[in-house]
Design a protein that fits this description.
By secondary structure, the protein is an alpha/beta fold. It is about 30% helix and about 20% strand. It starts with about 35 loop residues before the first strand and ends with a strand. The structure holds zinc ion (ZN).
Length: about 425
């Protein structure tokens, strides 16, 4: 349901079709089949395989991303149901120490800014294993986590973080309201991209927020994705890719106003937006919002042709990475991977990099050990494997954490090992 200025009406979501061809925009309902980038067919990036599964068929789905010509929402068709993707999730936020530290700094800053105390209530959507809410719990501030993956919710409860296992949307929010659970602070970090029914989710946030409450959300910034060539952050679990221009329209359609924005370095460049009810005059809109909106306009994010250049850049990145790896293998170098993140799987599958180039990868998450990367079937070992086999190169797949990883693996220099960082373009760090 769309009004005359092209924004969806609050609480009423247009029904998206399931495929990319002829797809209706997830937000405004316009036909959104202008191609942003086509990464071919790829498996679900979190579907790590056991040894036995290597002998079975493996489902691949299109990774074809389009942009809406009206609201400029960059989006992927809902090829796979979210229940299938998220009911058992392998990603535990606490395995990244820099991410936990990022969350701790945020909780301190926001607690001071909003004067939060034990009379307030904080809700986090997609609260994962309690990596963030634990810091509020330690300060005596009541919290509730909402997390769709039961295995991850169990880990949160073990940390003392009350966590409810469900998918969030308008219905779940009305359920919170009935229980008297509205938020003074409503947090959603790296969740909005993963929501198939965007309008229902934002409508739910409107319901779950107290009259003078504040929403903060973090998500990768589309402008950084485009400028930094971060095509590997595209995967089936990420249905939407946001600019400030687009997210402002989406929130406005649901009676929410962005009153501040921070540009932060996580995930290769993210936005942290601050929102309130549109009819809450207590927080004026900060200058930062106008400034970033103008920069996005100057970068062309309000023009369709700016989105068309992206695919050429992605193809060139693939060619350069393969050239480097082919040359290394011709010189009899051994290459190991570091990390088994979702983004690594997009990169490896799109580029066709398998055990012909990478002997194995390692990860700190024990859940992934002795499994295999989807599609490429590269085996995953504990990090000690690198010390044992002394590879010539270590390809860093979670390049957003490259400084942390280069510090942790400084010992590879003992045998002359070097790091390869694939994005924004292939780079070797001795
Ligand atoms: Zn649209």
């Amino acid at each position: 349901m769309v009004n005359e200025i092209g924004t969806a009406v609050a609480g009423v979501s247009p029904a998206p079709t399931s495929g990319a061809l002829g797809m209706a925009c997830r937000f405004c309902g316009e036909r959104a089949d202008h191609v942003f980038v086509d990464l071919g067919m790829s498996p679900l990036c979190e579907s790590y395989l056991t040894l036995r599964q290597l002998n079975e068929m493996e489902p691949f789905y299109p990774l074809r991303v389009t942009v809406c010509p009206r609201c400029f929402l960059v989006q992927l068709g809902e090829y796979v149901s979210p229940q299938h993707i998220f009911s058992e999730y392998a990603y535990f936020s606490s395995y990244s120490s820099s991410w936990v530290e990022h969350a701790r700094r945020y909780t301190e800053a926001i607690r001071t800014r909003l004067n939060l105390n034990d009379k307030n209530f904080v809700i986090e959507l997609a609260s994962n294993d309690g990596y963030l809410l634990q810091h509020f719990v330690q300060s005596g501030i009541p919290v509730l986590g909402i997390e769709p993956a039961e295995n991850v919710a169990v880990a949160a409860r073990a940390k003392g973080v009350p966590t409810r296992c469900c998918f969030f949307g308008a219905e779940a929010a009305r359920d919170l309201l009935v229980r008297g659970e509205q938020a003074d602070l409503l947090i959603g970090n790296n969740v909005l991209a993963q929501v198939p029914d965007l309008n229902d989710f934002v409508a739910g946030m409107k319901i779950a927020l107290k009259p003078h409450g504040v929403i903060t959300m973090e998500f990768p910034h589309l402008m950084c994705l485009m400028e930094g060539n971060q095509f590997d952050t595209i995967y089936h679990e990420h249905f939407s890719y946001f600019s400030l221009l687009t997210i402002e329209q989406i929130f406005a359609a649901h009676g929410l106003t962005l009153f501040d924005v921070d540009e932060i370095s996580t995930h290769g460049g993210s936005l942290r937006i601050y929102a309130r009810h549109t009819d809450d005059p207590s927080r004026p809109v900060a200058h930062a919002v106008d400034q970033l909106r103008s920069r996005e306009q100057r970068a062309g994010l309000n023009r369709l042709e700016s989105y068309s250049a992206f695919e050429r850049q992605v193809k060139e990145t693939k060619r350069r990475l393969l050239e480097f790896l082919i040359e290394a293998k011709r010189n009899h170098k051994s290459i190991a991977g570091y990390g088994a993140p979702g983004k690594g799987n997009t990169l490896l599958n799109y580029c066709g990099i398998r055990t012909d180039f990478i002997d194995y990868t390692v990860d700190r998450n024990p859940y992934k050990h002795y499994k295999f990367l989807p599609g490429t079937h590269i085996p995953i070992f504990p990090p000690e494997r690198i010390q044992e086999t002394r590879p010539d190169y270590v390809l860093i797949l979670p390049w957003n954490l490259k400084n942390e990883i280069i510090d942790q693996l400084a010992y590879i220099r003992d045998w002359g090992g070097k790091f390869i960082v694939p994005i924004p373009e292939v780079q070797v760090c001795a």
